[in-house]
Amino acid sequence: MRNPILATAAAFLATLLAANPSGTAAARSPAPAATSQIAIRDGKLEVNGVQYFYRIAVGRGEPIVLLHGWGETSYMWRYVTPALIARGHTILAPDLRGLGDTARPVTGYEKANVARDIHALVAALGLGPRVTLAGHDMGGMIAYAYAAQYRDQVSRLVVMDVPLPGIDPWKDISATPRTWHFRFFNVRDLPEMLITGRESDFIRWFRNVEAVNTSALTPESEDYYATSYARPGALRGGFEYYRAFAQDEIDNRAFAQWPLEIPVLGLGASGGLGATIGVLLRNVATDVKTVIIRDSGHWIAEEQPQQVVAALTDFIPAPSK
């Protein structure tokens, strides 16, 4: 007999995908005009038993570590890094544990643990020890966990359009219809069963409905992400970040007992968290600035890269010459 719960979930997912077919993006996303003699190179390095893929450009001064989120890889920073590199910054942008070209272990997706991965990667590459962290979505959660665990090694923190598990107003945000996927992805095995074989349709649909400037989601970018998330184990690796939320809540409540004293910037999308990013960050840090990214959905670095670059370069001092 067919499982009625599975049948209902499959029908629901099929309805969602049919209502928003892929291939709706039309125009190329605008990129900040910036050139530099500093070359970006790719690399792979094993840290904490996981082989990490990363992109790096070695410039001057304190490194900026860029951490992507779910539905993305380090490719999401392609419109932001040219301006930062042109300014002279050293940039490190890894693919996170389980995603992109980084290995996909079965466990270890708690944000505090992934932060330890990134800390080990920074050390292994001879960067730092002090860094500036900027993270979007899951990358923002990881960036906070890094800053909370290595307080004397982080100068500035940027969190982009994401709540923090266990930090008010987490319960309100995670209970809204907008965050339906928090609950769906948290179910063990079911999302993989329903989406496997339709990864391209699902990723394209999900990114489209979370965007405001949908023209920024180009055929090239959506092909790239669809291919990345269709790789064996990539869906499961991504969903494990959501399945770790219960432990993340415990960890973040412990971290928040000692608020961060470094400068913290929250970037909220006008079509996403908006000013709420500042509200939640003030529950974990004492020196918080908020910038709203206008005319943007969740994918702010791709939808409105000029605004993101402007906010970052205003917040992060230029490296000394």
Could you provide a short overview of the structure?
The chain has 321 residues and is α/β, with parallel strands linked by helices. The chain contains 14 helices and 8 strands.
Can you describe what's shown?
With 321 residues, the chain is of the alpha/beta class. The protein has a single domain, classed as Rossmann fold (3-Layer(aba) Sandwich). It has helices at residues 4-19, 81-86, 111-124, 138-149, 170-174, 180-186, 190-195, 199-209, 219-229, 234-243, 245-255, 276-281, 300-303, 305-315; strands at residues 41-47, 50-57, 60-67, 89-94, 131-136, 154-160, 260-269, 285-293. An 8-stranded mixed beta sheet has the order 1-2-4-3-5-6-7-8. β3 (60-67), α2 (81-86) and β4 form a beta-alpha-beta unit. It is globular, with a radius of gyration of 19 Å.
Q: Key features?
A:
Rossmann fold, 19% strand, eight-stranded mixed beta sheet, alpha/beta, single chain, 321 residues, disordered N terminus, 40% helix
